[in-house]
Automatic annotation (TrEMBL), chain A:
It comes from the Bacteria. Pfam families: Acyl-CoA_dh_1, Acyl-CoA_dh_M, Acyl-CoA_dh_N. Residues 126-219 form the Acyl-CoA oxidase/dehydrogenase middle domain. This is Acyl-CoA dehydrogenase. Its cofactor is FAD. Residues 232-384 form the Acyl-CoA dehydrogenase/oxidase C-terminal domain. One of its GO terms (molecular function) is oxidoreductase activity, acting on the CH-CH group of donors.
TrEMBL record, chain B:
The keyword Lipoprotein does not apply. Residues 220-349 form the Acyl-CoA dehydrogenase/oxidase C-terminal domain. Belongs to the acyl-CoA dehydrogenase family. This is Acyl-CoA dehydrogenase. It comes from the Bacteria. Its cofactor is FAD. The keyword Oxidoreductase applies. Residues 6-118 form the Acyl-CoA dehydrogenase/oxidase N-terminal domain. Keywords: FAD, Flavoprotein, Oxidoreductase. Pfam families: Acyl-CoA_dh_1, Acyl-CoA_dh_N. It comes from Zhongshania marina. GO terms for molecular function: acyl-CoA dehydrogenase activity; flavin adenine dinucleotide binding.
Length: 408, 364
């Protein structure tokens, strides 16, 4: 048991440290929070810079725009770049989820054409699984793809699509046969987001931002060459994508603790440091051991990955614990600051209004990518092996499943 | 980075697990709880024969000279099986305190008998409901009363905290077979690891004469033991998660497996999450302990707080998952619940360790 790099890993770390010191923006020099389009442009510039230096998608093969290195090199990169104020995780969904789907199912020619610009973020990708009537029950999706000669015609609606408004391409899961069981009647495709019949509408969220979108398909025609995997093989393909997502987001889920610790070290009540307050100390201890436990769990998972394993369903733990903790910490920080905490002006509020922004944004994190409740089911069923609940859709064809008043 | 135990260490754990599955059934734990023995002497002899008390004792002192990592994997299995033996008292506490506070000559004298299992040791620190030390040593003779001493009825020797005539805290080696020592069992929460009262009346003692002052030797002991106990606690958590899973999967209500209800699944998922956090924090503590890293104090406090919370949660919700049967003497749920309580009180409970954790975090 140790945290040492191998000689080769150590040399690699030194190399990227050197590169980052010359090319990345230090945290101390970072400006304030940026608006959404500015942040997007900054991320595009950063990814291109990284790709030009040969550090994009380190664990991808070279011919597809990667560096031909291992998952552990990617981890070392993430550890080092975390010391800088660069948007290195901005396109994680496209690269981490859509990338493996293309890598696994596309033709050689498509891979050579599509993947290198994805790696450098010259083209941006989104993932379209969720629908208005298919959230936690994502296999209940209804967007249809109907074969028409060598083409498919797509109709329906996706929702909660991160970054769709910036995306050039998207991976989409469609219903290709509603007359058989829901898991067998789906197929995966990719689609040009700028083509006819595709319309993106940002969703204004409760925090005022617009990170997610609705995407409408109205007789959007795509060639059969855009199909990823077998007709009817969409669910298996989706599971593969989601399994890769676990690795892509390992250790990047914020839990809010570093910001809380920083705040506690600066606040005073009646001249006394707030860290002397017994109630605050109780929270510090509990949130710290959870924060440390998530970090150590991630390190255990990465060790298993380095030995050739894939992250298991236990990776759900980081999100389950971290997301609600992030929300609770933001709420508690606001309680600590009293009236002043009601002010969202980043020029006035502590840490550029981090806590005010987080208290309003964090409810979404507990829902996105699997709700807290779905994560508990995943752990219960896939890790502990507990039985599924009896289901009303079992053994039925998709178009016979009760759907209440939700339109089909 | 290699944040895992080695294949050799995992093999040791696997062997320990299968030995204890055979030799330390819940019937044998109940034999201690319900009977008039204070520990399972036959199991202790097996553990001694396997060399477990000798793991971290240096070869020059008759030990195996292995790392704390080997002890951590053993601890997990002892916790899982509720082993009713003085391993915590003699190995994590007595032996470790001698290593931390005794002079090289004293270690040479005392450690070989601990390594061979010829003697069982314990530590006697607590005197009552506060952490005051009233025990007094004068002219190398100890007088006073210690309470809640783990395995105090059967230990051959104890390291006792006491003050000298100048009011200075010291640690003293006492032979408990001396006629000046009277011992009495105390009814305790977890009779599988029983406690006793020790009364010393001018008992001849030898002061531990290492370089480290007594107070800081005790801190070192507590940090090391906190990590080892965390592994015992994680083993206990895993045992009760398995129990809850088996019971709710076998039992039917409303025409279906109880484990298929989301209320039960989410309960078990929360138990698993708490256990995993505790396990990962214990791993980090194990690394810091084995590497003697400066991170140990914070890592140990983190592992301890995480493990106390996790074992309490898992052991109480295991009772809940068993319904009424969980509240019976007959079912084993209470054995783990009692053990969780017992382990949380050793070395000071959660509020004490949360305080240490925060002090160390803010100082880091």
């Amino acid at each position: 048991m140790d945290f040492k790099d191998s000689a080769e890993q150590s040399a690699f770390r030194a190399e990227i440290r050197d590169w980052l010191s010359k090319n990345a923006t230090p945290k101390s020099a970072a400006g304030g929070r940026k608006d959404q389009s500015e942040a997007y442009q900054d991320a595009k510039i950063w990814y291109k810079k990284v790709a030009d230096a040969g550090y994009a998608c380190l664990n991808w093969p070279k011919q597809y725009g990667g560096a031909g290195l291992s998952d552990i090199h990617k981890v070392i990169w993430s550890q080092e770049v975390a010391n800088y104020a660069e948007p290195d995780g901005y396109f994680v969904i496209g690269i981490g989820n859509c990338g493996p789907a293309i890598m696994h199912f596309a033709t050689e020619e498509q891979k050579k054409t599509l993947l290198p610009p994805m790696a450098s973020a010259e083209t941006v990708w989104c993932q379209m699984f969720s629908e208005p009537s298919a959230g936690s029950d994502v296999a209940g999706l209804r967007t249809s793809a109907v074969a028409d000669g060598d083409n498919w015609i797509i109709n329906g609606q996706k929702i909660w699509t991160s970054g769709a408004q910036h995306s050039d391409y998207g991976v989409i899961l469609c219903r290709t046969d509603p007359t058989i069981s829901k898991y067998r009647g789906m197929t995966m495709f990719f689609i040009d987001m700028n083509q006819a019949g595709v319309e993106v509408k940002p969703i204004k969220q409760m925090d005022g931002g617009a990170h997610f979108n609705e995407v409408f398909f109205n007789n959007a025609v795509i060639p059969d060459a855009y199909r990823l995997g077998e007709v009817g093989g969409g669910w298996g393909a989706a599971l593969l994508v989601l399994m890769n997502e676990r690795l892509a987001i390992a250790g990047v889920q914020p839990d809010g603790f570093p910001e809380f610790l920083k705040l506690v070290k600066t606040l005073h009540i009646d001249g006394e440091p707030i860290s002397a307050n017994p109630a605050v100390r109780e929270h510090l201890a509990e949130w710290y051991y959870k924060h440390a436990g998530i970090k150590a769990s991630t390190n255990r998972m990465l060790t298993a990955v380095a030995k050739g394993g894939m992250p298991g369903a236990e990776a759900a733990l980081g999100k389950l614990v971290g997301a609600v903790m992030n929300q609770d910490i933001a709420n508690y920080a606001i309680q600590l600051m009293g009236d002043a905490a009601a002010i969202c002006d980043p020029a006035f509020a502590e840490q550029q209004a981090h806590f005010q922004k987080t208290v309003l944004f964090s409810p979404g994190i507990r829902l996105a990518g699997g709700t807290d409740e779905v994560m508990r089911n995943v752990i219960a069923e896939q890790v502990l092996g507990l039985p599924q609940e009896p289901r009303a859709d079992k053994g039925l064809a998709f178009n016979e499943i009760p759907s209440g008043n939700q339109s089909r | 980075m290699n944040f895992d135990f080695s294949e050799d260490q995992k093999n040791i754990q696997e062997q320990a697990r299968s030995m204890l599955a055979k030799e330390c059934s819940s019937a044998s734990v109940r034999h201690i709880i319900d009977g008039d023995q204070y520990f399972d002497a036959a199991l202790w002899q097996q553990v001694v024969a396997l060399g477990w008390p000798a793991i971290t004792i240096a070869e020059k002192h008759g030990g195996l000279g292995l790392s704390y990592l080997e002890l951590c994997v053993i601890a997990t299995e002892l916790g899982r099986s509720l082993a009713p033996i003085p391993f915590i008292a003699s190995v994590y506490l007595g032996t470790e305190l001698i290593k931390a506070a005794a002079s090289p000559a004293q270690q040479q004298e005392w450690l070989p008998a601990l390594a061979s299992g010829d003697i069982i040791s314990t530590v006697a620190i607590s005197e009552g409901k506060t952490n005051h030390v009233d025990c007094l040593v004068s002219d190398n003779q100890l007088s006073g009363r210690k309470s809640a001493v783990l395995h105090g009825m059967i230990a051959n020797t104890a390291i006792v905290s006491a003050k000298n005539e100048n009011g200075e805290l010291g640690l003293y080696f006492a032979e408990l077979s001396d006629s000046s020592v009277s011992r009495a069992p105390q009814d305790s929460l977890d009779p599988s690891l029983p406690r006793a009262e020790l009364i010393f009346d001018k008992t001849p003692v030898i002061q531990l004469a290492g370089q480290t002052p007594a107070a800081s030797a005790l801190h070192t002991l507590f940090d090391r033991a906190a990590v080892l106990l965390a592994f015992e606690q994680v083993g206990g958590c895993e045992a009760v998660i398995d129990m809850a899973k088996a019971y709710t999967t076998d039992r039917y209500a409303f025409g279906r497996q109880v484990a298929s209800f989301q209320a039960i699944k989410h309960k078990l998922a929360d138990m698993f999450v708490a256990k995993e956090l505790a396990k990962s924090n214990a791993y980090y503590g194990a690394w810091a302990l084995a590497a003697d890293a400066p991170e140990l104090p914070l890592a140990a406090a983190t592992a301890r707080v995480s493990a106390i919370d996790a074992y309490y949660l898992c052991s109480k919700e295991n009772i809940q998952a068993h319904g009424g049967m969980g509240f019976t003497w007959e079912f084993d749920c209470h054995l783990y619940y009692r053990r969780a309580q017992n382990l949380s009180t050793l070395l000071g409970g959660n509020p004490y360790w949360k305080g240490l954790l925060v002090d160390r975090l803010l100082a880091a």
